[in-house]
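Blinded run. Sample ID left blank on purpose so nobody reads anything into the name before looking at the predicted structure. Input follows.
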Amino acid sequence: IKDNGQEEPLTSRERDILLLYAEGLSDGDSSEKLTIEKKSTLHNFWVKIYDKLNIKTKRDRLDHLRAVIKAAQDGQIQITPAKLVELEAKLKLEESNPLMPIEKEYLRAWAKGLSREEITTQKIIGSYPIKPRTYIVTSSTLLSKLEIKNVKTRPIFQVYLEAVKKAIEKKWLEDLDYSSLEEKARNPLTE
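Blinded prediction complete.
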């Protein structure tokens, strides 16, 4: 906010960042598209955006979405009314969803029937392999949130199948195809 009490307008670069996020691009994809080389540079843009829009950040995964909605409502970026309604609905749904983005990625990987080894050794989630210890901690937290019981006494793909179905049922994850996982869950010898 300027000294005279009025909001400072967003720069064209800041508007571009918001519009790309509104289109569904991640920070990494936005950086690439805008040729921003350092992660810290994009972070600094977001800090300035929050400040200019007077967004009290919660330091959570939804701050970017809140900023896009506020900028659109204030007329600082142009998106269709339908897109604004879609983003507002997404924010409302996400605020009631306790899953972190990485947990959703685990569920999507499980739905594809990927094993722990495939997830931890390949670049399945993000652009880097997941450390086995990180995988175990995150998986355990996720299964606890979904109230999955008797994990150690059942074949792992049966556990994954129950987790994916429960997340979809709770509307914490979009409906997706998990037929590969069902096949592996029927064959307890697969892991």
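Unblinding after everyone has recorded impressions. DSSP finds ten helices and no strands in the chain.
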